[in-house]
């Protein structure tokens, strides 16, 4: 197996190679669209199931709305339409026919042109709020707390596996509320759900914050986000939750009679995370040997590799291995016993390192004599010998330790890559030499934000929710500012 | 709540009303596409989870392939392309722009025309086999046992909720094998998985059979199917499993080196079930009061309705109800305690009947005195009084009984609606007066099948797999035949 390009050599190349070599995903025959391979999909399924559980726990239900948005609905909320118009896949025809000039080939049938074009959903506010119009008459019909797992399409010119693809999988929550306050609380609650999921399940530390107006979702009054930091010092937006005000209710005329008997427009939120999280997962934890997965997300948590010569030894080791496997499975731990005889242990070690299996257990003839096994941790690459007795309990605890250690490592990296700067010179220097989040004052205008972006490629990732107030002056214009914001180059 | 149209009055109207009133689905603002509402989606989720479990149990893994199929890939397998060309949604552009003549409106940007049109997948053989080409070199790469949960689009002119919609949700398995025999065994295995799922989870009795050549999936060498019978005597194809031979391997040049070192084309299967199963579920079990759900599929299995006057009574009943609820939940049974004070018990009874909640428990002040509860079964509308002590155990057993009874009832209906006929006159009479499956001889030609279809609207649903051989003569041409086939009008 050819070695991975190292992160130090070429971080971007390392990422692309890793995604493909670890069998997570690959480019497809369709421009900008990926194939999510079984191993990658198994990780996504774990993420999906855990998020779904959290959504239901907070009172949400799933539903499914159409893939297509008629153009007239799409353009109803102007800012939203403007924000997505440039990256829309558009269905114009509904039939193919035989090409009279090329037997065996097909052409679009010009007689099957749609009266109204259909947009392949880049996001579903329009189709959903045009539906909610019929569902909402009274405050008794509220709140509506719906989530959808779906595919969406945003025509991207420069795509990268998981991080930016023309089609991606995601969940989008769309809720309707009777009051402004309730809608704001919902968007904040879902941000907390995302942050909790990212930190405690994906082991990715995140900053909770608010986007500046220029970085807001098209059609939102406020966008909340969680921002993670990758190992190359670039930030990645890992989830967003939007307070949409009454913008979509007004665009689609969704009114209700409130408790006081007055007619008003409904209040909205939407919130989403996508397969982009796979990119965050990979780039937060992995190393030059391959994937590092927190145990909660690993399709295989423990692999047992027998070290043997000849069938008799394999048979003896298998007995012990199968017993350990059964005990671990009884604890809900997923275990693979790799008794394949074609590949050597060394090959297997490399393969499971590449795939990010958190714990590898090797059992050889000496181990049988001594009543021990060798346990290797993927995250820190340490090895140790442990007694076979109660090794299942030991591993159960070890997986918890690994989950925590993986998070701690990422958090230490993140915490040591937040740099306070007070001058633009310093800003550029830190951005160039160290990367990471840069905490600096900003004058609150689109202009300064834009200038910094144009000159440095750094954007304001967010205004952290737990920000301390601090008097200061902004980087370029020197205007007074009351708090620092987080800048970074970003994916 | 206005009553449902009865089945006897107008079966089709009954179905449409029921789907909407029971909050399962509704038509959307997009022609032919439906909105699957939360209650309907919760049922679909249960079906999906159980099927997914069965697929994994039989060694399959999930993956995800692109929504779009470039035209050149779509047309590669000619029969498949021909079969779906007439119902394809086609993406031709990737951008909208402001309409210069109508401020606030958008038009398709003529400068953003795709070089090659993209077909929204009506099924994924083409995109998947063009991918498998890169995955398969040696017999060691086989079998590939992949399933995908996805949305697909087939442009239908006459649509009906769940039964026939332009977009629907489904799963599609796509497997690749080293030998013809293994691929045939896979397609037969998956038919068995579907039949087991339909009968033991959905409580829908099905006939396992083979489609005639004219009813085969476009591109298949053999199509296996499960056929169910609805209460109006029409059949519904509930799942299909296709042996695709080497057709797609040849179209996409997927070759491998076999164990003997020779190059050959891979063998394929595909198999699918869809949200159409929701239609089968509704039409198999439901009655004039609303949905009837087998307990395995019911989002709420038990509802507890308090019968009370005043807050004090409600409080006393609540104590008992919450205790029962907790005990049932501990047994993995989903329970709703409906302590809403706005709606009267009678309204609630009708509502939960409409929604198909299998067991309703009513608790009133008399019950508290007597230490009893009233238990009503949704499936047969019977009521009984039971002691509160151990009522959780009683209900656990009752749910199993209901699951079995719902199946038995459907099976009795089905079994009494399979009629053997030996003349075309009798065939038409039975079809007209009784409906159901008609078991008759056929001469094996497309022509006779076509004539019967044109004259009676009945099609050959399948040649049952467990068919007894029997000499006979066919309905129209009088040619000799060795076995009967099943005809029916179908959804």
From TrEMBL, chains A, B:
Compartments (UniProt record): Cytoplasm
Domain Aminoacyl-transfer RNA synthetases class-II family profile stretches: 26-294
Keywords assigned: Aminoacyl-tRNA synthetase, ATP-binding, Cytoplasm, Ligase, Nucleotide-binding, Protein biosynthesis
Any single biological process term in GO: prolyl-tRNA aminoacylation
Listed InterPro entries: aa-tRNA-synt_IIb, aa-tRNA-synth_II, aa-tRNA-synth_II/BPL/LPL, Anticodon-bd, Anticodon-bd_dom_sf, Pro-tRNA-ligase_IIa_arc-type, Pro-tRNA_ligase_II_C, Pro-tRNA_synth_II
Enzyme category, top tier: ligase
Gene3D superfamilies in the record: Anticodon-binding domain (3.40.50.800), Bira Bifunctional Protein, Domain 2 (3.30.930.10), C-terminal domain of ProRS (3.30.110.30)
PANTHER family assigned to the protein according to its UniProt record, in alphabetical order: BIFUNCTIONAL GLUTAMATE_PROLINE--TRNA LIGASE (PTHR43382:SF2), PROLYL-TRNA SYNTHETASE (PTHR43382)
Function according to Swiss-Prot or TrEMBL: Catalyzes the attachment of proline to tRNA(Pro) in a two-step reaction: proline is first activated by ATP to form Pro-AMP and then transferred to the acceptor end of tRNA(Pro).
The protein, known as: Proline--tRNA ligase
Source organism of the structure: Soonwooa buanensis
